[in-house]
Each structure stands twice: as structure tokens, then as C-alpha cells.
């Protein structure tokens, strides 16, 4: 009578997505074309920002963003160790250095007080790269105030934050450049993909050229009648970071469902929080300035009250047919980052502590109430033994 395995994450693909992809396949236009343009227009409308640029990953978008703000070798960028490596690796692409700053123990976002201290004592810092962890916004007013005071740019890793409101404003309208991920586990999935938003037309123009080999078609706009259709100019050694129309077809239909998806994830989060609050765990903290996109639901085990560790908990969930995950293994524990910067595990004590207690529960729109109850029931069985 063993139940089917409940995966940790699943994309929510319906007939609408399938039909839009089939339409793209029949159209004969597979690379960046009309669907990508439409997805960009609809995304920029949804966020309420003038420029949205589709790319083939969030990682690519973050790389373009750092190029656009003029990051040079040796520059320093403040970011969080409690993230996926993509956030920090793009800094290294440019020969710049990440300056990791420990996180807030409640939101798991970068600790703004510690950013302020770092800025007082360190020179050469050019930007702040916060991650809206799990789908909850950073303290953006404080981050933007520090950026203004020290003339820094702010690039937001919004891979978890579609959609997230900060003080009533959608993330994507706050810092200089914001980058989203449409990786298969994210709240909008195109398989692989990402989107950049900015209100700055110069950044937008620069990133638009760089995302496709540094090709500039500006010459067409200026003098459309005398320039032949085959002509183009290369203005930089650009990249191959454009989104294709098959991915954009998925994106168009997923975006239409984004608020419905959010509503379902919010319901699941509320059910978890209500059912688990009395157990030896900490349920996610919700900051009053931010809504939560609920890309992740991260439970913190109160290890001092339990006879088991986090890994055993995950093994037991797995044995009961329930997938979970850990967000994140802090970057300073990974070989590359540890060796490059000589980190000790205790260099970021909050990130280390949060990591040791963290378990991400499944939370996606296609989960049924029965699935949610099954997860809750199994957690109770494990923790009450
Ligand atoms: C998923 C993720 C990324 C990378 O997104 P891709 O689209 O796979 O490049 C970057 N940052 C964070 C915080 C992520 O979770």
C-alpha cells in the first residue's frame, strides 16, 4: 500500500502551455522572435517597468546586469553567502570579488546592519547584490539608502521573487536592475530561462546588444530606409544569452497563471504553518514590509529539542515517499569559495546555523490538499517520536 513518491518540486504545465508550444513549432520560428517579444511585453506590463529583456537563464541575466553597471576586474560587490552559487559566480566572471555579508536570522536575507558596517570599513565596493530569499523581499529602503550614500548600484537576484511586493511595490521596480529565473523549479518555469527588468534605458540598450553577440541594430532605427535588411554592426564581444521562442511560449502561458499559482502556494504555506507551529520547529518568519512569493517554504528544526539531526529528518521523509530539499548549502562551505577566500565555517555563523536546521518542504500549485496533509502527517510522526 505504499503511496506514490511526492516530488519536492514539479512544474505546473497545462494544455495552454502545450498548445502555445505546438503553435510555436508549427510557426517555423524557433529562436528569439515574435513569442519572445510578446513575453517581454507582457512581463514588463505585469511588473510595471519600462524594459524587460528575456534571456536563457537568470545566471546569464545577472552577468549582463553586472556588465551593464560597469563592473571591472578587482571591484567588490556585497552579496549573501546564503544563496545558489550563480549569484556569486557571475561576479567572478568579471574578475570582480564577492564580499559576503552574513544573513538576518529571521528572513535569511542579507543583514543590512552588517552591510552598513562593511561599507564603513572597506573600499572598492561598487554594488550590492541582494537575493530575495525564498520569495520574501529584502529591506530595500535601507539597501537603497546605503547605495545612495556610497554611490553603489543595486542588482537584485529575484530568482525566488515572482511575484513579491515590497511596501506595495512589485519587486522589479526597486533597484537598478532585477533578474528573474524561469528554471524548472521556479514559480514561473520555461525549462531554462530568465528575465531582466530595469527602468534605465541605457542599461537596457547595452544588455540587449550584449545578450546576442553584441549585435546592434540601432542603425536600422535611425535610417531605416537606406540601410539594407541584412546589415548589422557589432559593438562589443557579446554573449549568446537570448531566449528562444519555445521557452517564451511556455512563459507567456505561465505568466497568465502567475497569480493563481501564488494563491495556491500561499494556501499551502498557511496550512503548513498552522499545522506545524506547535512542533519543535520554527515556521517561516513573515516580514510585515513584504508579501511572500512562497517559492520556498523553509522549516527550521529546533535541534536542541530534538533527538535527530536535519539529515536524518530528510532521510525519514524520503523513506516515507516525500521529497524535500535544503536551501542553501552556504557558499563559504563549498570547495571553490572556501579555498579562494580561506573561509572557515564559522565566518558566517548565522548562515551556518540556519543551514544546519533548514528543510525545504514541497510547495507547488499542483499539490492537492491530500498531498499537503500527507506531508504534515509525516512530519508529525517523525518529530513526535
Ligand atoms: C535558481 C537560482 C539562480 C539561477 O537561475 P538560472 O535561471 O538557473 O540561471 C540564481 N539565483 C538564485 C537565488 C536561484 O535560486
Polypeptide structure, described:
By secondary structure, the chain is of the alpha/beta class. It folds into 2 domains: 15-256, 3-Layer(aba) Sandwich (Aspartate Aminotransferase, domain 2), CATH 3.40.640; 258-384, Aspartate Aminotransferase, domain 1 (Alpha-Beta Complex), CATH 3.90.1150.10. It is built from 14 helices and 14 strands. It has a 7-stranded mixed sheet, sandwiched between helices. Helix 1 (15-27) runs antiparallel to helix 9 (245-256) and helix 2 runs parallel beside helix 9 (245-256). The longest helix has 19 residues, at 258-276. The mean pLDDT is 96. Pyridoxal-5'-phosphate is lined by residues 57-59, 83-84, 86-87, 131, 157, 159-160, 181, 183, 194.
Low-confidence stretches: none
Q: What is the name of the CATH architecture of the largest domain?
A: 3-Layer(aba) Sandwich
Strand content: 5-15%
How would the global form be characterised? globular
Give the C-level CATH assignment of the largest domain: Alpha Beta
Total strand count, please? 14
- How many structural units, i.e. domains? 2
Bound molecules: pyridoxal-5'-phosphate
Annotated CATH homologous superfamily of the largest domain: Type I PLP-dependent aspartate aminotransferase-like (Major domain)
What structural class do the secondary elements suggest?
A: alpha/beta
Radius of gyration: 22 Å
Strand order of the largest sheet: 1-9-8-5-4-2-3
What is the compact description of this entry?
This protein is of the alpha/beta class.
Features of this protein?
binds pyridoxal-5'-phosphate; seven-stranded mixed β-sheet; 14% strand; 2 domains; alpha/beta; Aspartate Aminotransferase, domain 2; three-stranded antiparallel β-sheet; 14 strands; 385 residues; Aspartate Aminotransferase, domain 1; globular
Amino acid at each position: 500500500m505504499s503511496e506514490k513518491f511526492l516530488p519536492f518540486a514539479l512544474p505546473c504545465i497545462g494544455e495552454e502551455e502545450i498548445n502555445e508550444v505546438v503553435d510555436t513549432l508549427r510557426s517555423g520560428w524557433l529562436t528569439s522572435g515574435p513569442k519572445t517579444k510578446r513575453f517581454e511585453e507582457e512581463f514588463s506590463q505585469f511588473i510595471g517597468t519600462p524594459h524587460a529583456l528575456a534571456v536563457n537563464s537568470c545566471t546569464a541575466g545577472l552577468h549582463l546586469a553586472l556588465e551593464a553597471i560597469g563592473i571591472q576586474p578587482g571591484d567588490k560587490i556585497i552579496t549573501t553567502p546564503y544563496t545558489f552559487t550563480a549569484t556569486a559566480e557571475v561576479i567572478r566572471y568579471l574578475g570582480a570579488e564577492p564580499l559576503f555579508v552574513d544573513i538576518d536570522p529571521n528572513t535569511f536575507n542579507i543583514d543590512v546592519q552588517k552591510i552598513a558596517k562593511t561599507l564603513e570599513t572597506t573600499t572598492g565596493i561598487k554594488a550590492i547584490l541582494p537575493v530575495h530569499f525564498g520569495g520574501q523581499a529584502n529591506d530595500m529602503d535601507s539597501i537603497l539608502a546605503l547605495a545612495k550614500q556610497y554611490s553603489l548600484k543595486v542588482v537584485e537576484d529575484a530568482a525566488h521573487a515572482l511575484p513579491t511586493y515590497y511596501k506595495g511595490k512589485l519587486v522589479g521596480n526597486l533597484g537598478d536592475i532585477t533578474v528573474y529565473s524561469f528554471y524548472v523549479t521556479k514559480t514561473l518555469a520555461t525549462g531554462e530561462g530568465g528575465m531582466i527588468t530595469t527602468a534605465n534605458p541605457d542599461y537596457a540598450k547595452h544588455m540587449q546588444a550584449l545578450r546576442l553577440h553584441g549585435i546592434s541594430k540601432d542603425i536600422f532605427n535611425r535610417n531605416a530606409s537606406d540601410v539594407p535588411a541584412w546589415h548589422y554592426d557589432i559593438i562589443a564581444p557579446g554573449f549568446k544569452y537570448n531566449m528562444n521562442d519555445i521557452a517564451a511560449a511556455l512563459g507567456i502561458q505561465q505568466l497568465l497563471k502567475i497569480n493563481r499559482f501564488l494563491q495556491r502556494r500561499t494556501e499551502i504555506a498557511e496550512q503548513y504553518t498552522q499545522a506545524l507551529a506547535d512542533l519543535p520547529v520554527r515556521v517561516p518568519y513573515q516580514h510585515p514590509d513584504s508579501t511572500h512569493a512562497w517559492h520556498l517554504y523553509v522549516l527550521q528544526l529546533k535541534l536542541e529539542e530534538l533527538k535527530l539531526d536535519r539529515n536524518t529528518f530528510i532521510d525519514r521523509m524520503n523513506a516515507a515517499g516525500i521529497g524535500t530539499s535544503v536551501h542553501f548549502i552556504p557558499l563559504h562551505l563549498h570547495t571553490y569559495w572556501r579555498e579562494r577566500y580561506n573561509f572557515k565555517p564559522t565566518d558566517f555563523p548565522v548562515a551556518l546555523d540556519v543551514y544546519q536546521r533548514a528543510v525545504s518542504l514541497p510547495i507547488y500549485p499542483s499539490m492537492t490538499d491530500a498531498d499537503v496533509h500527507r506531508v504534515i502527517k509525516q512530519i508529525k510522526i517523525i518529530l513526535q517520536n
